[in-house]
Design goal:
By secondary structure, the chain is of the alpha/beta class. The chain has helices at about 10-20, 30-40, 55-70, 100-115, 120-135, 170-175, 180-185, 205-210, 255-265, 275-280, 305-315, 335-345, 365-375, 385-395, 410-420, and strands at about 45-50, 75-80, 90, 95, 140-145, 160-165, 195, 215-220, 225, 230-235, 240-245, 290, 295-300, 325-330, 350-355, 380, 400-405. It folds into two domains: about 10-280, UDP-N-acetylmuramoyl-L-alanine:D-glutamate ligase (3-Layer(aba) Sandwich), CATH 3.40.1190.10; about 290-420, Alpha-Beta Complex (Protein-Tyrosine Phosphatase, Chain A).
Amino acid sequence: MPGHRILKPHDLDGWLSYIATLHTQVIDLGLERLAAVAASLEPLHCRVVTVGGTNGKGSTVAFLERMYLAAGYRVGAYFSPHLIRYNERVRVMGEEVDDATLCAAFAEVERVRGDTPLTYFEFGTLAAFVVFATAGLDVAVLEVGLGGRLDAVNVVDSDVAVVVSVGTDHKDWLGDDRETIGREKAGIFRKDRPAVLGADMPQSVRMSARALGACAIEAGRDFQIERLTAQWRYKSAQGVRDLPFPALRGPYQLHNAACAIAAIEAAGLPVQADAVRRGLLEVRLRGRFQTLPGRPLVVLDVAHNTEAAMALVDALAAQPIDGRTWAVAGMLSDKPIGEVLSLLAPRVDGWHVASVQDPRGAKATVLVEALLRCGVTAVTAHGDVVAAFAAAQAQAREDDRIVVFGSFKTVGAILATVSRHERPDG
């Protein structure tokens, strides 16, 4: 790599440190720089499904991945961000790719980029495309990072695009209201190609789909869900399916699963009914209302914005317990801390809040002040998330529940501590 630091072929940490230095900004929305580099890389020779939205996009990608795998296809899946290891972001055939594969992909991006500055996310996204281009895939499922129209993932023209939900996260980058944000999310749609719209879409998403010439497939109009006692029902023009509840917990996961099924129906790769059922049961994605084995019950959820907090409240209500609920919370300073905590406050008996070890991390005192404004007094501040979790464990009884939430950083810190050698159960 002339003119650049020489890195060892398996030095993933070295590569990650290096690519973090290549751009003066963490986020630089826009596709011109990226497209110029991508044009020099091997293109994807497979079906592509792109999934955007404020919440639920990672789960929807995971559903698609598992359903396609169960149907016998070669599948790649791209996620962001990661919880513990960068490798979580790039999966081939359901498994995280190894350090050597990632480093080789980074080296290829570095070889062709010249002097073009790329952000950490842009560089990693192109590296994922390199991995997928050489893996002989039938389908690649891609999670949008931020927004949609100007996000790095959108440099690829997808065969099917999904917008699962539109909330009010990332206002500094995407706009102040759902209509404005919806237009940005809808930028992943393509002319004459299917566009799956999740429930409760702002009008701007429908209008954008129409303006772009996409073939809109709307929740509630073109496909519906019905929750039954022991299963759930999915209805579309292709028929009625009675399906098992998914392995990913939380009532909202039915909506995400339905969007995945609608995308599969639109993509044109045949997926048998049994493969859909197996995909629902075999799906795995950490940090989405994930419960750890043992007592007290420990729930991990990456909820970090208002809409995700509302979904977490509903999921907790659907999971009754005999004892008390303890919360371990840590958030980033650019999130709606007061709104999120006020939504959870009625469901929590005692709080342990922590400073998040990140340049964007909020101090524990900020969370304490927000809870005090909600009338909460049973709150203790800690210097880090691990200490907060240990304190909650010391207080909790066997029939209690500990809920860890607030950011990927918060959940990742606990996963790294308590489940390093355990296979997550969803």
